[in-house]
Design goal:
Elements (H helix, E strand, L loop, with lengths): L1 H44 L4 H32 L8 E4 H10 L2 H6 L4 E4 L5 E4 L1 H18 E11 L3 E9 L16 H5 L6 H10 L3
Parallel strand pairs: 2-4
Antiparallel strand pairs: 1-3, 4-5
Keywords: Kinase, Phosphoprotein, Transferase, Two-component regulatory system
Main location: membrane
Protein name: histidine kinase
Length: about 210
C-alpha cells in the first residue's frame, strides 16, 4: 500500500509540475511572439528608411530567437519530467567536453572583458550520456555569462562525487533556494525574457535515473 501511495504522489507531483510548466510557458511564448508581430505590422504600415527597417528587422529576429529558445527549453524539460526514453551511456572525458563547450563562449566573455580561471583540470572520466552532459555544461556556462559580472572562477573537484563549482558576482539579488526551480527568475531576468528553465533542466538531468 505504501508503495502504491508513493507512486500516486509521484504521478501527482509530475502532473502538477507539467501543468505549471504549460501555464508558464504559454505566457512566455506569447510575449516575444506578440512583440515580433507588432514590429512586423509596423514595417508593413509605414514607409521607413533603410536604417529603420534594418533596426526593426533585427529586433524581430531577436524576438523569434527568444521564442525558439523557449520552445526548445520547454520541449527538453517536458521530455525529462515525463521520463521519455533512455539515454545511451559511455565512458567520457568530462574535462574535454567541458572545455569544448566553454570555448564556444570564449568570445562572448572576452567581449565583456571577463576572464575565466579553471582549477583542477586533470582528466576525469565518467559513465554518462554525451548529449546530456553537453547540455548541462552549456546551460551552466550561459547562466554564468548572462547573470553575472566580472571574472569567472571554476573549480573541478573529484571524490565520492564530481563537482563543478562556479564562483562569480551576480548581476542581481536572487533567492538561492529557488534557483533550480522551473521558471524561477529574478525581476531583472524576467525583463530579459529568460525562460527560468536553464538551471531546472540542469537539475533534472543530474538527478535523472538513466
Amino acid at each position: 500500500m505504501l508503495t502504491f501511495r508513493k507512486l500516486e504522489i509521484d504521478i501527482e507531483k509530475k502532473n502538477n509540475s507539467l501543468q505549471k510548466t504549460i501555464v508558464n510557458i504559454s505566457h512566455d511564448l506569447k510575449t516575444p511572439l506578440t512583440s515580433a508581430l507588432g514590429y512586423v505590422e509596423l514595417l508593413q504600415k509605414y514607409e521607413l528608411s533603410g536604417e529603420e527597417q534594418h533596426k526593426y528587422e533585427s529586433i524581430i529576429i531577436d524576438k523569434l530567437k527568444q521564442l525558439s529558445q523557449l520552445i526548445e527549453d520547454f520541449f527538453t524539460f517536458t521530455k525529462i519530467i515525463s521520463n521519455e526514453g533512455k539515454f545511451e551511456l559511455k565512458l567520457l572525458d568530462i574535462n574535454r567536453i567541458f572545455e569544448e563547450e566553454l570555448v564556444c563562449y570564449y568570445q562572448d566573455f572576452n567581449s565583456q572583458g571577463r576572464m575565466i580561471y579553471i582549477k583542477g583540470n586533470k582528466k576525469i572520466e565518467m559513465l554518462s550520456n554525451e548529449r546530456i552532459l553537453r547540455r548541462i555544461f552549456d546551460n551552466l556556462i550561459i547562466n554564468a555569462l548572462k547573470h553575472s559580472r566580472g571574472d569567472i572562477y571554476i573549480s573541478i573537484n573529484t571524490g565520492a562525487e564530481i563537482c563543478f563549482q562556479f564562483k562569480n558576482r551576480l548581476d542581481e539579488p536572487i533567492i538561492v533556494e529557488q534557483i533550480f526551480d522551473e521558471f524561477y527568475t529574478s525581476d531583472i531576468s524576467r525583463t530579459k525574457q529568460n525562460t527560468g528553465l536553464g538551471l531546472a533542466i540542469v537539475k533534472e538531468f543530474t538527478e535523472m535515473e538513466v
